[in-house]
Write a structure and sequence with these properties.
With 270 residues, the chain is of the alpha+beta class. It has a single domain (9-267), classed as Sandwich (Jelly Rolls). Helices cover 31% and strands 21% of the residues. Strands 1, 2, 3, 4, 5, 8, 10, 11 and 12 form a nine-stranded antiparallel beta sheet that branches. A hairpin with a 5-residue loop joins strand 11 (244-250) and strand 12. The longest helix is centred in the middle third of the chain and has 19 residues, at 144-162. The protein is globular and about 55 Å long. The structure holds 2-oxoglutaric acid. 2-oxoglutaric acid (AKG) binds next to strand 4, strand 5, strand 9 and strand 10.
Length: 270
């Protein structure tokens, strides 16, 4: 088995300064709603915000995406059209003072499953580096299949024990363990793209990634995860349960917008 494009795509200057300001304001508006949530207190998904009746930050973020180079990238990935996976598009505020902020290496297939390709377009709202953590990936010199195989056998064992079909799993990898698996390449085992606010890093659900461990004094960072897919070839967890999608549409005037649909509606007979 091979994993296509196991290294992330880095695109610089995809968003204007005004779009970064607008997405940062959207994150600021979402932050008070993250507070008080018992788990993952530093992030909130678009679907959760929608349910809590806070559509404005979501619309601002999606509008910036649809009018940026991220849109062109999304159309290259999904030439037939794409949708936002609303449950798994998130605002995130990395707070170095909170242990919950750091995510160890993982695959997004943990919660999206396999099946159709999903792409995480990860948009930092601050310049990365100098203590502001980016995302760490496996370097091009390592064999990503080694980690994938470890993930796959653990995941299959968990799913077999549950016998409940495609469902999220909770598998993270300790950085030291991963480093020892790839000890022959030393420091080259990991890469951390240093991009400025305005760029993005994109990768599919079988690309391992985690929050960068910074060696200097860690600083806060805002980011947005836009997870997108082909509405007609969704990842398996989305096919298996009712979920909302925002399907990208282009109007007669050429403007880009969205239409929110439920996966159950997609499956409904015409
Ligand atoms: O922003 C981070 O530090 C982690 C984000 C992440 O793991 C993800 O987008 O899947």
């Amino acid at each position: 088995m091979s994993i296509p494009n196991a290294v992330p795509v880095v695109v610089e200057q995809a968003f204007s300064a005004e779009q970064i300001r607008s997405m940062s304001a959207a994150l600021d508006a979402a932050r008070p709603i993250m507070d008080g949530r018992e788990r993952r207190a530093n992030s909130i998904g678009f679907e959760a915000l929608w349910r809590l009746n806070h559509p404005r930050p979501i619309m601002a973020a999606m509008s910036a995406f649809l009018n940026s180079r991220a849109y062109d990238f999304a159309m290259q990935q999904f030439p037939g059209g794409f949708c936002f996976l609303l449950r798994n598009c998130s605002f995130r505020y990395h707070d170095p003072a909170s242990a919950k902020s750091h995510l160890d290496l993982h695959f997004d297939a943990n919660f999206l499953g396999l099946g159709g390709k999903a792409v995480n377009v990860w948009v930092p709202l601050n310049d990365l580096g100098d203590g502001v953590p980016g995302l760490t990936f496996l370097g091009p010199e390592v064999d990503p299949l080694k980690l994938y195989r470890a993930w796959r056998s653990k995941r299959d064992a968990l799913l077999a024990a549950r016998a409940s079909g495609p469902t999220p799993v909770n598998i993270f990898f300790d950085r030291e363990d991963v480093q020892s698996v790839f000890r022959e390449v030393g420091e080259a085992a990991f890469i951390t793209p240093r991009i400025k606010a305005g760029g993005f890093v994109a990768f599919h659900q079988l690309v391992a990634h985690g929050t960068e461990v910074v060696s200097s004094v860690p600083k806060a960072r805002g980011s947005i995860e836009f997870r997108i897919a082909d509405p007609e070839a969704l990842p398996e967890v989305y096919r298996a349960r009712k979920a909302s999608l925002a399907v990208a549409k282009t109007g007669a005037d050429g403007r880009h917008g969205i239409e929110v649909v439920l996966t159950s509606e997609l499956d409904a007979p015409a």
